[in-house]
């Protein structure tokens, strides 16, 4: 029996989590797997009831589970709150408290969606499969000091970008190992022409390359990388980068696949539980309308089966079922190009279950 913490959160979070659960239940019926779900509030939903985006109870529940499936947090309703109460603190707090220092974001363009990509077919090619490994518990997001100071004549805000050698090494290890399992090409992305943290990053990653002689390592500045992603995305296999750069580059990379609603992710650390979440946000503008794309969340559940439960077959079955739905011309609202039929969030879940 595997226990899974479900944290639907805000906006479209609950709708997409429902579909992922539907798919996991169908997997249970076909594979030798049993799941017990434990649900809890996070983000704005938790602020509304408990006055905080992440309660100690929710954190304890997560620590007790084998894996966590997270929806999305945030929305205009909570935008005016002081920073400790912002819904985003829920996901940042989970990542930090659970030591989830590496975020694997899988950028795959399904053939059926190549027309939905904003990039010309000549550039995007037939296939696109990039793995972005984003550092997740350091850099500007967590560096201290951080704050805002007001005096009578000026206001000063500051964040600190910092990395230790050990923080860089542990996430780089994950990226080198991912490259070894894939096309064996690793692009480490930094801003070493300007930033000290990047110069340390580059030195450490370069030194580590000796331990992975089968992996071809290259370095790229982040501004160039953002350009290369749309100019020649096929050159990338695994991209390794720090927290903020990874946040930005993964949103950019996601649209290559047709929609940000397609990208799953796994956040991993040195021990369980790992956390799985779609990379998109809570999309409050479409919440409750049935327009949300559940595929990123369903593919996140597939990553969970593979990374947390070692169930590679079941994970591939989900990916194949998603691909079949797309090949059959079923689309959610965000990926309408080439659609035979535009369907709702829950209809997409049903079709994927049927295809399993
Ligand atoms: C992401 C999101 C989060 C981040 C937000 C919600 C804090 O944009 O997972 O990419 O910046 O990491
Ligand atoms: Mg982001």
The helix content is 25-40%
Structural class: alpha/beta
Question: Which stretches are poorly predicted, pLDDT < 50 over at least 5 residues?
Answer: none
Count of individual helical segments? 12
Bound molecules: 3-isopropylmalic acid, magnesium ion
The radius of gyration over CA amounts to 20 Å
Distance between the termini: 21 Å
Give the strand order, joined by hyphens, for the main sheet: 2-1-3-12-11-4-5-10-8-9
**Major sheet size, sense and barrel closure:** 10 strands, mixed
Overall 3D shape: globular
Please specify the SSE layout and strand pairing:
Layout: E1 2-9, H1 13-30, E2 35-39, H2 44-50, H3 56-64, E3 67-72, H4 88-97, E4 102-109, H5 121-124, E5 128-135, E6 147-150, E7 155-158, H6 165-181, E8 185-190, H7 196-208, E9 216-221, H8 222-231, E10 238-241, H9 243-256, E11 265-268, E12 274-276, H10 295-307, H11 312-327, E13 330-331, E14 341-342, H12 345-355
Parallel strand pairs: 1-2, 1-3, 3-12, 5-10, 8-9, 8-10, 13-14
Antiparallel strand pairs: 4-5, 4-11, 6-7, 11-12
Bound molecules: 3-isopropylmalic acid and magnesium ion (MG).
Magnesium ion is lined by residues 247, 251.
């Amino acid at each position: 029996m595997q226990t899974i913490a479900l944290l639907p959160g805000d906006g479209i979070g609950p709708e997409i989590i429902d579909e992922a659960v539907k798919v996991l239940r169908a997997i249970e019926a076909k594979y030798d797997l049993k799941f017990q779900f434990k649900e809890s509030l996070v983000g704005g939903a938790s602020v509304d009831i408990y006055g905080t985006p992440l309660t100690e109870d929710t954190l304890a529940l997560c620590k007790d589970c084998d894996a966590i499936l997270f929806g999305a947090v945030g929305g205009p309703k909570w935008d005016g709150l002081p920073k400790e109460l912002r819904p985003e603190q829920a996901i940042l707090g989970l990542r930090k408290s659970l030591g989830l220092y590496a975020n694997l974001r899988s950028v795959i363009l399904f053939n059926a969606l190549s027309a939905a990509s904003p990039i010309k077919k000549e550039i995007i090619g037939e296939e696109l499969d990039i793995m972005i490994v984003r550092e997740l518990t350091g850099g500007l997001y967590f560096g201290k000091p951080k704050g805002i100071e007001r005096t009578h004549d000026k206001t000063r805000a500051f964040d600190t970008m910092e990395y230790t050698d050990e923080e860089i090494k542990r996430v780089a290890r994950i990226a080198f190992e991912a490259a070894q399992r894939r096309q064996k090409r690793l692009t480490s992305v930094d801003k070493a022409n300007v930033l000290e943290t990047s110069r340390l990053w580059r030195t450490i990653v370069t030194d580590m390359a000796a331990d992975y002689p089968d992996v071809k390592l290259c370095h790229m500045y982040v501004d160039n990388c953002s350009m290369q992603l749309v100019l020649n995305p096929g050159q990338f296999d695994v991209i390794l980068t720090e927290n903020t750069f990874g946040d930005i580059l993964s949103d950019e990379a996601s649209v290559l696949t047709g929609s940000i609603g397609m990208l799953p992710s796994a956040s991993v650390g040195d021990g369980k539980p790992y956390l799985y979440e779609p990379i998109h946000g809570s999309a409050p503008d479409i919440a409750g309308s049935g327009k949300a794309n559940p595929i990123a969340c369903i593919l996140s559940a597939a990553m969970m089966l593979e990374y947390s439960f070692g169930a590679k077959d079941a994970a591939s079955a989900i990916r194949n079922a998603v691909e079949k739905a797309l090949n059959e011309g079923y689309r959610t609202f965000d990926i309408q190009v080439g659609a035979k039929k535009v369907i709702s969030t829950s209809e997409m879940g049903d079709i994927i279950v049927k295809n399993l």
